[in-house]
Amino acid sequence: MRLNGSNIEYGGRVEVFYNGKWGKICRNKWNFEDVKVICRQLGFKRAVAEFVSDVKDEDIPFVMSDVACTGDEPDLASCPRTDGKLNVDCQNDGTGAQALCEPKSK
């Protein structure tokens, strides 16, 4: 998993590696509880927001949808979600799920 598409290392579009390619997560059901898990899994201090301005949204497929973390899971794989097929049907503007985390200490 990685954060991509912005000019900062601690925020951006959430991408997952699936079937040998990077894909994005549909924002259906995406909320701050999901961001908490993403930031923790990536080793950041804490979650700050579920949206990052100025994220370049590349034309990569949706590979996951309906993520429903409670915020206490150790990683995204522990959260209920829909995945397992390329080009998940996502009913939004094409923008993938995003996360903004507090940067790691220097």
Report on the structure:
- 9% of the residues lie in helices and 27% in strands.
- The two termini are 22 Å apart.
- The chain has one helix spanning 32-41, and strands at 2-4, 11-18, 21-25, 47-49, 62-65, 82-83, 98-101.
- The protein is mainly beta.
- A hairpin with a 6-residue loop joins strand 1 and strand 2.
- The longest helix has 10 residues, at 32-41.
Oligomer: single chain
The main sheet comes to: 7 strands, mixed
Beta-strand content: 25-35%
Instruction: Please write the string of helix (H) and strand (E) elements.
Output: EEEHEEEE
Helix content: under 10%
Radius of gyration: 12 Å
Tell me the overall shape: globular
Mean pLDDT: 87
Give me a quick take on this structure.
This protein is mainly beta and 106 residues long.
Strand and helix map with partners:
Blueprint: E1 2-4, E2 11-18, E3 21-25, H1 32-41, E4 47-49, E5 62-65, E6 82-83, E7 98-101
Parallel strand pairs: 3-5
Antiparallel strand pairs: 1-2, 2-3, 2-7, 4-7, 5-6
Keywords:
106 residues, mainly beta, seven-stranded mixed beta sheet, 1 helix
